[in-house]
Amino acid sequence: MFVSSLVAPRTSTRRANAASPFVADRRTICGGDVAAPSSWLLAGRPLFCRRRRRYSAVGARGLVAQAAPKATEKNIPINLFKPNAPYEGTCLYNKKIVGDDAPGDTCHVIINHDGKLPYLEGQSVGIIPDGTDDRGRPHKLRLYSIASTAAGDFGDYKTLSLVVKRLIYTNDKGEEVRGVCSNFLNDVQPGQKVKMTGPVGKEMLMPADLNATILMLATGTGIAPFRAFMRKAFVERHPDYKFTGKMILYLGVPTSSSLLYRDELEEMKANFPDQVELHYAISREMKNKQGGRYYLQDAMEERGEEIWQLLQKENTYTYMCGLKGMESGIDGFMSGLAGKDGVDWADFKKQLKQKKRYLVEVY
């Protein structure tokens, strides 16, 4: 089985203690020494710096936040930087995180914003790739869901992380087309500048109810906001935030080696078995009841009644993120579920959206 080089040895956060903190030194990373990312322990816990210590390793939930983020749910940062005046961050880390048999490269990128671009879990950032288009104009920005908590992977509120799949396809003329921004981000090197705008988005933020049930539906890189959600709830420790609810993740990918952040997710599940559920739909390796490929809605169908009961509870929030095509498949499944109870899914979904309990971000 492919193991991402982002994954550290599986030392449980339950054993973390102040005498043996997990430390990463940004001076080393910024200086170009990125040969041993496993030492950063990116999988399963945030990192912190010796120079600006905001976390200390304590207890079962991992690392304790020593300072609150600048951005809050009451003060949502929006468009602090715009295309005509973007913020220039610096790439600190870029690593492929899928196996060679995965359909296309996908990388985890960490960008330093030096605390100038605060954001909340569930927001997106705009990236303006280097270079110009065919008309000699700067490339247009592309939006990416942020894959890190507000604290970032280092825990110092100075970085953001992105998970990006390299887009390469053949057009109707038989010509190879390479996505400008996705290829830029997959190829960006540590030390290279990255122009950023935003942050944007208010719809996909985490619910205020700390005892909520959060149902997360993702395909591929749509895992990004949910990684942030889960790390905040089950990895970081904040003096003013303790999630007591449940998070249920359904993740659809084509191959096993495409399961992004798998070790990280599995460690959260192991540490919080009553609060974390993980369900994978590996389309090219699993079969549905009809013998066809196994998609997200097939995994959900196995627990259909449970899902329908959850959707009717006022403290259940459903989030969907990923490829646009996933929406129709899930709607079809949901329509069948609702129909068994004589409920029109379109009307019911509209009601959920009005209550901000059904949030969708597809691309």
From TrEMBL:
InterPro entries: FAD-bd_FR_type, Flavoprot_Pyr_Nucl_cyt_Rdtase, FNR, FNR_nucleotide-bd, FNR_plant_Cyanobacteria, OxRdtase_FAD/NAD-bd, Riboflavin_synthase-like_b-brl. It catalyses: 2 reduced [2Fe-2S]-[ferredoxin] + NADP(+) + H(+) = 2 oxidized [2Fe-2S]-[ferredoxin] + NADPH. GO terms for molecular function: ferredoxin-NADP+ reductase activity. NADP(+) binds at S145, K165, T221, V253, P254, S283, R284, G322, L323, E361. Its cofactor is FAD. Keywords: FAD, Flavoprotein, NADP, Oxidoreductase. It is an enzyme of class 1 (oxidoreductase). It holds the Pfam family NAD_binding_1. Its EC number is 1.18.1.2. Residues 84-206 form the FAD-binding FR-type domain. Belongs to the ferredoxin--NADP reductase type 1 family. PANTHER family: PTHR43314. This is ferredoxin--NADP(+) reductase. It comes from Cyanidium caldarium. The lineage of its organism: Eukaryota, Rhodophyta, Bangiophyceae, Cyanidiales, Cyanidiaceae.
